[in-house]
From TrEMBL:
InterPro entries: Acylphosphatase, Acylphosphatase-like_dom, Acylphosphatase-like_dom_sf, Acylphosphatase_CS. Pfam families: Acylphosphatase. Residues 1-12 have a biased composition (Basic and acidic residues). It catalyses: an acyl phosphate + H2O = a carboxylate + phosphate + H(+). SUPFAM superfamilies: Acylphosphatase/BLUF domain-like (SSF54975). It comes from Olsenella profusa. Keywords: Hydrolase. Residues 1-20 are annotated as: Disordered. Its EC number is 3.6.1.7. Residues 23-112 form the Acylphosphatase-like domain. This is acylphosphatase. It is an enzyme of class 3 (hydrolase). The active site is at residues 38, 56. Belongs to the acylphosphatase family.
Amino acid sequence: MFKRWREEHADDGASTPPEDAKRLKLRFVGQVQGVGFRWTSSMVAKRLGLTGWVRNNPDGSVSAEIQGEPSHVGAYFSQMLEEYRHHPISYVIAEREDIPVDPGERRFEVRY
């Protein structure tokens, strides 16, 4: 399912969000800086065809917004756990909030 969606939307990243799109605002705390967390988050999001962003915060946490089909947004969390299965890090989701979809967003990016 994820592979087909990516192939259909891989041309220029300019697809519009699906009609049932979901957007989450997240804040991760714990061992999330200096361990490739932003890069991993970006890789997982892009693999799932999600849009949004991820960035480090001055307080040592990481913030992100992820958007896409509800099943893909849900899969983001299990795939993040899978990515860190062999090299576990300690983190929790300190904030998780449903927010309005950004209809103009077309890509997932790491912000600095």
